[in-house]
Design a protein that fits this description.
It contains 13 helices and no strands. By secondary structure, the chain is mainly α. Helix 4 (89-113) crosses helix 8 (243-285). The longest helix is centred in the first third of the chain and has 51 residues, at 118-168. The two termini are 42 Å apart.
Length: 435
Amino acid sequence: MAEDKDARQDGASSSSVGSGGDRPSASVKHLAGASPAARKVAGARRNPSVVGYDDTVPAWLRTSAGWSWRLLLLIAGIGVIFYATAQVQIVFIAVFLALVITSVLRPVTDWYAKIMPRGLATALALLSAFLVLGGLLTYVITSVAGQWDKLAGQFNTGIEKIFDFLEHGPLPVTITSDDVDTWIENGRKWITEHGGDIASQAAASAGSVFEAFAVLALAIFCTIFFLARGKDMWTWFLNQLPARSRETWTVAGGAGWYTFSGYARGTVIIALADGILAAIVLVVLGVPLAAPLAVLVFIGAFIPLIGAPAAMVIAMVVALAANGVVNAALVGIFIALIGQFEGHILQPLVMGKQVSLHPVVVALAVTSGTFIAGILGAVVSVPLVAVAWAVFSKLRRKDPPMEDEIPTAKEIALSGRERSSNGGSTNGKEATADA
């Protein structure tokens, strides 16, 4: 009899706990099987917080609070990563550059490795890259040296035409040669007064040149090992992890490297195509220093959204100084067409699905990276975001897409009003029935 009484009490307690207000039964699962004393201490009805939440707090606020502290922790973690990276910026740049070079030279090294040892294939691939870059630089320097005098004369003539237009043209503001002489004299005075600052900046630039050589040397050193023993290094890293985590890291690393290498190789191919097309256009239009300007377009293609327009402006200025306004306008039009050809044909054809980022995401990433780390941030922001999205897409569990068409905002608003009116009439009926 006593056991039956306790059982009845347990059932009553569980029913009272489970039916307390509008609390879902899932929230009191942890009380199942507990003794009557434990249930009494828990006080699920008098103290809702013991079951994990407070009935006085709205559900939307509990959900928002849960998301908020998780997002704050995530932002704090990202901030720590950025701070640590800023402390070793030279090392980060060197490793990033080494990964870019490795992704570009990896296919060449693999092809050489079919007929020779891996170490010799690595050395030959690096030597091939040095020969190509050295040949380009030699050609650019030779072109500049051969056309410099001619360009300087044309540039002076263009400047004189510009000042003549400003002095005698139809513009409401006139600028005379006396104004120009005054500006030059003021510039000389400023240089004389700030000579010490200029010297200190020159010394800082010398230090930056030394850092650039240090970064390049470290990048080449890392590239040698990445090309020769990259797979072994990755296997060693995986073996240091717990067995339960290795599969996840393998999947994440594979997806990230596939995206990063595709972006790096695709960017090099697209930049090379842009440089060749720009060289053809500049040579056909008769613009001086076509080779250096084409190399500038090639370098600018590595900076998304910013580099290509900057190279276009410089090429237009040179064309304006040398050949006039019409030639400069033609240069701008053709380089803009090259940009459209790159965005709509080369990008989808070369990169394909390896880098699937919306243009809005690219613009936001480049802008944020520029504000955080200047030109360096603009260069590394897009590949980092692409790698992060590729890893996230590979590891997440994606629900099936919606099949129904999404209603418009007006339809949603009207349906909400209808539900409110129907709910009010229903509540009224229930109130009448209760009365």
